[in-house]
Specification:
Pfam families: Bac_DnaA (PF00308), Bac_DnaA_C (PF08299). By secondary structure, this protein is an alpha/beta fold. It is 51% helix and 9% strand.
Length: 575
């Protein structure tokens, strides 16, 4: 048997020695499997050219290329996935009569290492015995054989002492050794510092007990490279629960307790309502409670970027393996997928494969799937087939709890209850906005050395206290009503008297009176130049509909009055 470094007999295709044969074979194999796969799976493999006995009547003996793998894992991988590619490369590079075999390298069995104290005491004796036992044999054998055995013994001794830290073994090392030391369990670590809350995570905070200073965190062997520090701070325990997010919180709890039930789960609502925090909390619980090693949690933009990189880098199979072999998939901001047809198609196939085997799927966006135009009918229907829950803007009680929590964590001076109540009542429902207000008050405390008054807070933070989402105008209400009831633009200002238009028009007048400071005459004039008495009558009619639970609209666009108002308000908050 001759390795690629030893000269040998002539070969087809102009090869002059065995090293040229192996080099030509490697180049042909690299062209077949790709440079990236060749570097991963063949960098630790030795190729040996083996010549058999010459067949009578032929000029050259038959040949065989032997792929020598360091371990059984690598050998099985080559035999199952790359044997056909190696045979084709051998035939094209070295002749059709060349065969290919996979062989596991024979490695000497090493004695288990002893403690250093015992090893130090017996090193001299062992070395002497070994020398005595080896000397007679070395004198009777060739010097090259002795040197080779000495080099092998030196490598074995170094390997028994030098170890790589646990958890840092590379894929190259796995192929070389045939084992994966990364799969050994990691010891649990104890966190001694109290978790902090970032400004970006403010919308989903919670009030937790400060008595517990240490928390045992379960080990997670795989954390997506997209996960940021902000997401890692969003846990289930520090989420602020309230009436505004009770439905979504209950659905996430069900997904944690019974993964795969009512999957896919879709959370939708305005920005700053706690959707991202809930996704991060669910991902953490799936890793901790159910020991899921491959929980993939990322945003829709990150999924799209990874997909584009996979297409451009010819590594689409690796991309699909990463997502379709996951234990759970959680994606935020699904509205980012709009009009990205190739990404939508890839995501749809991924969801279908994971759903078939009952893997948990959780998504979040600013709108419900069937209200996101450009998402595609198939993907929208697949997402809506599970469980769709709305997360509303933070109500006053939840805002008060959130402000109290952040004030306790970030401010040196306690806040008066009156200040908490007043700021919670005038601030918007975006939790991230509340985080900015608390940071401002903490700065004013350091500047003045005391708790600032409300006048001082308004002086420096009027832009935060005034900010309550998208400005609501008569035109904005008109567009939202037309969109909810699937009407043409400006149809509410027309003179049509059909019920499919008059009822939504009266609902728009009611909302305009409730949500803006416009007078009845201004409202009537905006909706087709009608009088103020028409606007007053519309306001009274809608109140009667609410009391009676009557529906509004006609045909497929018909909705109960409560549901129509809820959808319109949500659309106004999200823009």
């Amino acid at each position: 048997m001759m390795e690629d470094c030893a000269p040998g007999m002539s070969t087809p295709h102009g090869c002059t020695d065995d090293s040229d044969v192996i080099a030509t074979f490697k180049e042909a194999l690299k062209q077949r499997v790709g440079h990236e796969r060749f570097q991963i799976w063949f960098s630790g493999v030795r190729f040996v050219l083996e010549a058999a006995d010459a067949v009578a009547g032929t000029a050259d003996p038959s040949r065989s290329i032997v792929a020598v793998a360091a371990g059984q894992f690598a050998a099985d991988r080559l035999s199952n996935h790359y044997l056909a590619a190696m045979r084709g490369a051998a035939a094209s590079a070295c002749g059709a009569s060349t065969t290919v075999r996979v062989h596991v390298e024979d490695r000497p069995t090493l004695q288990a290492e002893l403690p250093f104290a015992e090893a130090g005491a017996s090193d001299a004796t062992d070395a002497g015995d070994a020398t005595d036992a080896r000397e007679p044999d070395e004198t009777s054998r060739p010097a090259s054989s002795v040197r080779q055995e000495r080099r092998t013994a030196a490598k074995a001794a170094a390997a028994s002492v030098v170890r790589k830290p646990r958890g840092t073994q590379s894929l190259q090392a796995i192929l070389r050794d045939g084992t994966d030391s990364r799969k050994s369990p990691r010891p649990k670590r104890i966190a001694t510092s109290r978790p902090t809350v970032s400004a970006a995570g403010a919308f989903a905070g919670g009030i937790t007990s400060q008595a517990t200073k240490a928390e045992v965190k379960p080990s997670t062997t795989e954390t997506p490279h997209h996960a940021s520090n902000t997401r890692s701070e969003c846990s289930w325990e520090n989420f602020v629960g309230g009436q505004c997010n009770e439905l979504a919180r209950t659905a996430c709890k069900m997904a944690i307790e019974s993964p795969g039930l009512a999957s896919p789960l879709v959370l939708w609502g305005p920005p700053g309502s706690g959707k991202t925090h809930l996704l991060s909390a669910v991902a953490g619980k799936l890793r901790g409670l159910h020991r899921m090693r491959r929980v993939v949690y990322l945003s829709a933009e990150e999924f799209t970027n990874d997909f584009i990189k996979a297409l451009n880098g010819n590594c689409l199979p690796a991309f699909r393996s990463r997502f379709r072999d996951a234990d759970a998939l959680l994606i935020d901001d699904i509205q980012f997928f709009v009009e990205k047809k190739a990404t939508i198609r890839e995501l749809h196939h991924t969801i279908e494969m994971l759903a078939e085997v009952g893997k948990p799927l959780v998504f979040a966006g600013t709108k419900s799937p069937n209200e996101i135009n450009g998402l595609g009918g198939e993907l929208s229907g697949r997402l809506a087939s599970g469980l769709v829950c709305q997360v509303e803007s933070l109500d006053t009680q939840t805002r008060t709890q959130l402000l109290a929590r952040y004030a306790e964590e970030r401010c040196l001076i306690p806040w008066p209850d009156a200040t908490l109540q007043e700021i919670a009542s005038v601030a918007g429902g975006d939790g991230r906005l509340l985080s900015g207000i608390v940071n401002l008050v903490a700065l004013l405390q350091r500047m003045h050395g005391q708790m600032p008054s409300m006048d001082q807070i308004r002086q420096h933070g009027a832009h935060l206290l005034r900010s309550s989402g998208v400005p609501i105008t008569l035109s904005a209400i008109e567009r939202a009503v037309e969109k909810v009831f699937q009407l043409d633009s400006k149809s509410l200002q027309s003179g049509s008297q059909t019920k499919s238009i008059t009822e939504p028009r009266m609902l728009a007048m009611y909302l305009a009176r409730e949500m803006t400071s416009s007078a009845y005459s201004e409202i009537g004039g905006h909706f087709g130049g009608r009088s103020h008495s028409t606007a007053i009558l519309a306001n009274q009619r809608v109140r009667q509909w609410l009391d009676a639970g009557r529906s509004v609209g006609r045909g497929q666009a018909a909705l109960s009055t409560d549901e129509a108002i809820r959808r319109i308000e949500s659309m106004l908050k999200t823009g």
